[in-house]
Structure formats: C-alpha cells, structure tokens
Amino acid sequence: MGKIVVKKVVTRKPGHLYYVDGQGNVCEAKMARGGKKKKAAKKPVKKVVKKKVAKKPVKKKVAKKPVKKKKR
User: Fold this and answer.
1) Which own/partner contact pairs does 53-62 have at CB distance under 8 Å and 24+ positions apart?
2) Which helix (H) or strand (E) holds 29?
3) How confident is the model over 22-47, as pLDDT tens digits?
4) Rounded distance, CA 7 to CA 19, Å?
5) Residue 29's beta-bridge partner residues?
6) What are phi and psi for residue 51, nearest 5 degrees?
7) Do 38 and 23 contact (CB within 8 A), yes or no?
8) pLDDT recorded at residue 39
9) Beta bridge pairs of residue 30
10) How far is CA 62 from CA 3, 57, 66, 67, in A?
11) Which residue has the higher pLDDT, 35 or 7?
C-alpha cells in the first residue's frame, strides 16, 4: 500500500486516472470508462419484408400408354 506524502497537489479531473511513475512523477491518464456518460445510440428500425415466393412450373400429366402383354 502506498503512502500519502502531500494532499491536494494535483487538481483532479473526472474520468482521469493519476499515478506516480517509476521516476516519481505524477502522471495523468484518461480512463477507458468513467467520466461523462455517453448518450444511448439509436437502434435501427428493422422493417419486415415479405419474401416473394417463386411459382413452380406446373408439370403436365402425360397419359401412360397401356403395356401390352407378350404372348408365349
């Protein structure tokens, strides 16, 4: 755990992270999250599209010829 040496040396900004680096300098980094809240993005409206059904060609019925029986 670190030690507090001096208080109120740095004026803090919301959404920023402060730390002491290896050389003893106070560094400021912007946090990946936090700070100001982002506005909610509008969701795109999905439209329902009816699919077109392709008509299948009608097969014509062909009359079958009667099979002749062979005589023996």
Assistant:
1) none
2) strand 26-30
3) 888 888 888 887 556 667 777 777 77
4) 14
5) 17
6) -80, 140
7) no
8) 75
9) 16
10) 98, 15, 12, 15
11) 7
User: pLDDT at position 35, please?
Assistant: 55
CA distances from 30 to 25, 34, 47, 56, 57 (A): 16, 9, 40, 63, 66
Tokens of 65: 């010829």
Structure tokens at 42: 């509008």
pLDDT: is 18 or 3 the higher one? 18
- How far is residue 47's CA from residue 56's CA, in Å, rounded to a whole number? 27
H/E element holding 17? strand 16-20
Matching residue, tokens 């795109």: 44
Cα 28 to Cα 12: distance, rounded to the nearest angstrom? 9
